[in-house]
Write a structure and sequence with these properties.
- This protein has helices spanning about 5-15, 20-30, 35-65, 70-105, 110-135, 145-155, 205-210, 230-240, 240-250, 255-260, 265-275, 285-295, 300-335, 340-345, 345-370, 375-400, 405-435, 435-455; strands at about 155-160, 165, 175-180, 185, 190-195, 200, 215-220, 220-230.
- With about 450 residues, it is an alpha+beta fold.
- The protein folds into 2 domains: about 5-105 and about 295-455, no CATH class; about 135-275, Jelly Rolls.
- A 4-stranded antiparallel β-sheet has the order 1-8-3-6.
- The longest helix has about 35 residues, at about 300-335.
- It is elongated, with a radius of gyration of 31 Å.
Length: about 450
């Protein structure tokens, strides 16, 4: 192995990742608008797509096109198949590892993943609420177009052991859906019932407005979902079907309501229909929510670092392996004496990686700062990734010169698949959310063209 060329690989790896600490410094010292961050992220994504297409996929495909003999065509076909297989494995492997890392708090490294986490958490909570509300036959007759309003108006209340939820003789102006805990219902000194998760308290009194017929007391720490009577009265005025169900319930003919096939609604079916009717909106977390999420995931710092490393491993390898291919071809054509570093640099690949790394580090650093991380800690995290990328490029060069070219192409395909999946799963969604579709489209185009333009330097 020529250690001069190995040092070149390490140098190029460090150069491509030098934008990580630079982007981090910019993110820590400047708070750009969302459109700027989104546009820069899309620009980097377009540049990286160009680098993958021009430096990894195109050479392997062109070998097949220009192969003249049957043996050459067979070998070129084998290499292209290896790349395709590697890409599928790389994309699948990236998704699997990314999912594991995100479950430990690694999602906090990317704006798009953070928004997806909070959006999914809100959706899961909404489903939990609907499942509890579905315990009421009355609620299940609420028109689906009113469900969105109902979910937003629900109150989540906590009661300590011994605390009274409602008292005998008081106005029936609130209904309780027991979410957790145990509630004891008494009339005078007589024990009536014990309510647990899934039970409904005060439904008939809410509809009729009659005084409470019993007292409900929390036996232990209890959580409940509640609605005030004025909301129910408003919904009754908006829907004749809901008013009909309320009237039948108030007439103490709930059994007749349930037994009638024409208006009976299955609870599970209603929950599914209600979830479908709800508008799915992205949840942009506040700074406080980000800090709470970081604290909830105790291993978040390590998971974030591993996640960033996962994003950078593929690119570091292909730098080294691409350099091996370039040097091998140059030696075969002109001899080792004619080789210079400037003539061997895969400009499009280095430029694509550099341009993609910069906005990623900037955007992530802004998010980490909002989570309460110190500036020095954030910078050192990104700087360490620069060092790791440089080492990875050296490993890629060593491995590329030590194994069969078919294996190298397979690994390059794996790296290309992982990076392309990362672009589609993280960079572009983040750019669309922050910058909008038009900004993302144009910035992606400009990034793609900018990376290809670096071919003019070769």
């Amino acid at each position: 192995m020529d250690y001069q060329f190995l040092s070149w690989a390490i140098l190029l790896g460090g150069l491509s990742a030098a934008s990580l600490p630079l982007g981090s410094l910019l993110g820590l010292s400047w708070q750009p608008g969302n459109k700027i961050v989104g546009g820069m992220t899309a620009f980097g994504g377009g540049a990286l797509v160009a680098a993958l297409a021009v430096e990894l996929v195109a050479p392997t495909a062109m070998h097949l096109v220009h192969a003249e003999t049957a043996v050459a065509k067979s070998e070129a076909s084998h290499h292209l198949i290896n790349m395709l297989i590697g890409a599928i494995i790389g994309g699948s492997l990236f998704v699997a590892l990314d999912t594991i890392i995100n479950s430990q708090g690694g999602f906090l490294r990317k704006t798009s993943a953070t928004i997806e986490y909070f959006t999914n958490r809100k959706s899961a909570r909404r489903k939990e609420i609907l499942e509890h509300l579905a315990g009421s036959e009355l609620i299940r007759h609420l028109p689906l177009e009113i469900v969105e309003e109902m979910v937003t108006k629900v109150n989540e209340r906590k009661f300590q052991a011994g605390e009274v939820l409602c008292e005998e003789g008081a106005d029936g102006n609130e209904v309780f859906f027991i979410e957790s805990g145990t509630v004891s219902v008494t009339r005078g000194k007589e024990f009536i019932a014990e309510l647990k998760s899934g039970d409904v308290l005060g439904e008939i009194a809410l509809v009729t407005g009659a005084p409470r017929t019993a007292t409900a007391t929390a036996k232990d720490e209890t959580s409940a979902l509640t609605f005030p009577k004025e909301d129910f009265d408003q919904w009754r005025s908006q829907s004749s079907e809901f008013e009909k169900a309320a009237a039948m319930l108030s007439a103490s003919r709930l059994k007749e309501l349930v037994d009638r096939d024409d208006i009976d609604i299955d609870a599970d079916e209603w929950v599914d229909e209600a979830m479908t009717a709800l508008m799915e909106t992205a949840v942009v977390p506040t700074d406080i929510q980000l800090q709470e999420a970081s604290e909830e995931h105790g291993g978040a710092p390590m998971a974030i670092w591993l996640g960033i490393l996962l994003d950078g491993i593929p690119e570091s390898f292909v730098i080294g392996s691409a350099l091996v291919v370039s040097i091998t071809a140059a030696i075969a054509q002109s001899g080792a004496d004619s080789i210079t570093l400037g003539s061997m640099v895969p400009y499009t690949l280095i430029a694509g990686l550099f341009l993609a790394n910069f906005p990623e580090a900037m955007s992530s650093s802004i998010g980490m700062k909002k989570q309460g991380w110190g500036s020095l800690r954030i910078f050192l995290m990104w700087f360490s990734l620069t060092v790791m990328t440089a080492i990875g490029a050296g490993v890629g060069y060593w491995l590329g010169g030590s194994v069969d070219h078919g294996i190298v192409v397979l690994i390059e395909g794996l790296a290309a698949g992982a990076m392309l999946t990362m672009i589609a799963a993280a960079m572009i969604p983040e750019a669309v959310h922050l910058g909008g579709s038009n900004v993302t489209g144009l910035a992606t185009l400009f990034g793609f063209l900018a990376a290809i333009a670096f071919k003019l330097l070769e």
